[in-house]
Design brief:
Radius of gyration: 21 Å
Protein name: Centrosomal protein CEP104 N-terminal domain-containing protein
Shape: flat
Oligomer: single chain
Strand content: under 5%
Structural class: mainly alpha
GO cellular component, one term: cilium
Distance between the termini: 35 Å
Number of strands: 0
InterPro entries: CEP104-like, CEP104_N
């Protein structure tokens, strides 16, 4: 459940950005809008969604050989102990890291050219951390912060 602002403070002249983290496995995303906010500008009781940004890894449920792994995923989310070490920490055994640069908010508030530069610097920073070049990674992190301030 996510509630949105009624927008009275801005005189109904602003949009609202919400980011929601959902730790789940599935094939579909269902969004249900319960009610609109009543105001003098919304005479037809309309609700609008501008964008949805879904960040995750694709789950292939089409293959019959995936039934046992699907059951293990269900057990994992229900809190049952799983024998599969690949399921520890995450549902697919992949990294939990989701870059804030993948968030829709990042693209909304950054110049597109600067955003590309920041993404390249972030990729170099992650490579530097993997190679244990922490001083270089720290400099890249500072450069990213400086670009985001500008």
């Amino acid at each position: 459940y996510v509630s949105l602002c009624d927008n009275e403070k801005t005189g109904c002249k602003a949009r609202e950005l919400k980011s929601v983290y959902v730790d789940a496995v599935g094939q579909f995303l269902k969004l249900i809008f319960h009610e609109n906010h009543v105001n003098k500008y919304n005479v037809y009781n309309q609700v609008a969604l501008v964008a949805v940004n879904i960040i995750g890894d694709p789950a292939d449920f089409g293959d019959e050989s995936n039934i046992t792994s699907r059951e293990k995923l269900i057990d994992h989310y229900l809190g049952h102990n799983s024998e599969d070490p690949a399921l520890e920490g995450t549902c697919t055994g992949k990294s939990d890291y989701i870059s804030p640069l993948d968030d829709l908010a990042f693209d909304m508030y950054q110049d597109p050219e600067v955003a590309q530069i920041i993404r390249k610097l972030d990729e170099r920073k992650r490579e530097a951390v993997q190679k244990e070049r922490y001083d270089y990674a720290k400099k890249l992190k500072q450069a990213i912060a400086d670009l985001q301030k500008v």
